[in-house]
């Protein structure tokens, strides 16, 4: 006996024996706009275009309620024509509709700005460029995270942290050098 697949509400149903499919047609569960397919067919077709099923039903098949002829010309569902014998096409699960919470990735923006300002306050020429580099990397983090590039956002965050620390260290070095300079000048 032939095994049939049919689409209902965008989901593939089946396989069902031909007798069961004919019962669903007679009960009105499947109308002429539902797509049907069985092994040996090249593509999915609307039930209203499958004469072998139409001839076996005693009642008229209701026409598609909200399906236009243009949308039936190219069905969205299709199986490969050259399937290996005995394979059963499986319906795909629906897309995940839950709430996804993206991971938190620190930007280190305010820390980078503070490191840059501290570098400027202590007139540390070496610290200022490192602070600017830290700010540039910190500015990239959120944009990459929003785009879904979590690896790139994490790398930019790590780079911002590294350059911010270097800027603070250089600022501290500048501060120590300034203190030493003041002490030696006063002696």
Strand order, sheet with most strands: 2-1-3-4
- Please outline the major beta sheet: 4 strands, antiparallel
Helix content: 40-55%
What is the molecular shape?
rod-shaped
Number of separate structural domains: 2
Distance between the termini: 107 Å
What value does the Rg take, in angstroms?
Answer: 34 Å
- Percent strand equals 5-15%
Assembly classification: single chain
Number of E-state strands: 4
Could you report the average pLDDT, rounded to the nearest whole number?
Answer: 78
Q: Structural class, judged by helices and strands? A: alpha+beta
**Low-pLDDT runs:** 59-75, 77-83
Number of helices: 6
The string of secondary-structure elements, in order, is EEHEEHHHHH
